[in-house]
Amino acid sequence: MRITKILMAATAGAFLLAACTPPEQYNPNDPNQRTREGAAVGAGIGALAGLISGDTAKERRNRALGGAIIGGIAGGVIGNNLDKQAAELAASFDNGAIGIINTGNELIVRMPQDILFATDSAVVSSTLRGDLQTLAASINRYPDTTVQVIGHTDNTGTAAYNQTLSERRAQSVAAILQGAGVAGYRLQAYGRGESEPIASNYTAEGRAQNRRVDIIIRPNR
């Protein structure tokens, strides 16, 4: 019985992995991609819960079916909200340098440091405050989410200095979002310094990509 449940869980787990599209394969021209994937993953999770909770074959079938239906609905709602919010933000931002990454589980709004701050400064540029206010309005239209603001730097300078600078910058962005109406309990601000690069620090282009603030909008599940 235990081995059977493990095999069923592994099968369902494989289905879930297959249902997710990596962020780099996300098609921004398909506004419903994450809705479909959310429904598929939710259904898989619900079915998995049913499969491993029943004691008899009939119980497992019934619970898997019920879990798939409930999970599919919940996952589809989450995926649909991510699709809608990503499309709205893409149409609303004035600055073409801001990136929006829909992972299927969360939205990452990526703001390059060089458009947000002057060198060695944690004061947000006046030209970006409008985009942050637009982001705050979007966050408030989707209240069932939490938001992490994470500052990142390249490896120029000492690690300790970069860590402190990244924290100050994240806090500055979070303060503007809160000032624009986002509830403080929904916001968390962190600095990661130079520890999480997304490109090589051996080139100027790579260092520019690493200098960023990521605003992660995560649905409450």
UniProtKB/TrEMBL annotation:
It is found in: Cell outer membrane. The keyword Signal applies. This is OmpA family protein. Residues 1-18 form the signal peptide. The keyword Nucleotidyltransferase does not apply. Keywords: Cell outer membrane, Membrane, Signal. It comes from Albidovulum sediminicola. Gene3D superfamilies: OmpA-like domain. Coiled coil: none annotated. InterPro entries: Bact_OuterMem_StrucFunc, Gly-zipper_YMGG, OMP_bac, OmpA-like, OMPA-like_CS, OmpA-like_sf. Its main location: membrane. PANTHER family: LIPOPROTEIN YIAD-RELATED, STATOR ELEMENT OF FLAGELLAR MOTOR COMPLEX. Residues 104-221 form the OmpA-like domain. It comes from the Bacteria. It holds the Pfam family Gly-zipper_YMGG.
